[in-house]
Amino acid sequence: MKPIAKILAVGLLGASALAAHAQVNQVRVWAAACANCHGTEGRAQPGMDALAGKDKSEIEQKMLDFKNGRRPATIMHQIAKGYSDEQIAAIAAYFAAQKK
Fold first, then answer.
1. Residue 45 neighbours by CB distance under 10 Å
2. Exposed, middle or buried by CB within 10 Å (0-12, 13-18, 19+), for 42?
3. What's the CA gap between 64 and 19, in Å, rounded?
4. Helix (H, G, I), strand (E, B) or coil at 53
5. Measured torsion, CA atoms of residues 49, 55, 60, 62, in degrees rounded to the nearest 10
6. How remote is the C-alpha of 5 from its chain's centroid?
7. Fewest CB atoms less than 10 Å from the CB: which of 44, 46, 66, 77?
8. Signal sequence: where (predicted)?
9. How far is CA 10 from the centre of its chain?
10. pTM value surpassing 0.90
11. Is residue 8 over pLDDT 70?
C-alpha cells in the first residue's frame, strides 16, 4: 500500500471512531434530560419509575404512547414530543443497557 493510501485509511478509521463516539455522547445528552425524574442513568429514587435495565421495547413503546397521546401523563407527553422516533429508540436502548 502506498504511503498516501495508508494515511488516508488511518484518517478514515479515526474519523469513523470519532463519529461513533459522538453518537454515543449525543444519546447520553438526550438521556440526561430524564435524570430529574428517573435518576442518573435511569436509577430512580423510590417512588419514581426506574428505567435502567428495563426492556428496550417496553421503554420505547411507553415513550411512543406518550408522544402520540395514547398514554396519559402530566409532563411526559410534552417531553416525548420533543424527540423523533429514532431518538426515542436510541434513548430506550441506552437505558436498557444500564445496570439496575
1. 9
2. buried
3. 27
4. coil
5. -40
6. 36
7. 46
8. 1-22
9. 29
10. no
11. no
Give the integer Cα–Cα distance in Å for 45 and 93: 21
pLDDT at 17 over 80: no
Please report which confidence band the pLDDT of residue 38 belongs to, taking 50, 70 and 90 as the band edges: very high
Give the count of alpha carbons within 13 A of 69, CB side only: 0
The residue to which cell 478514515 is assigned: 12
Domains of the chain, each with CATH number or no CATH: 3-97 (1.10.760.10)
Residue 21: per-residue pLDDT: 52
The total number of residues shown for the chain amounts to 100
- Residue 10 to residue 21: CA distance in whole angstroms: 17
Distances (CA, A) of 34 to 49, 74, 80: 11, 14, 11
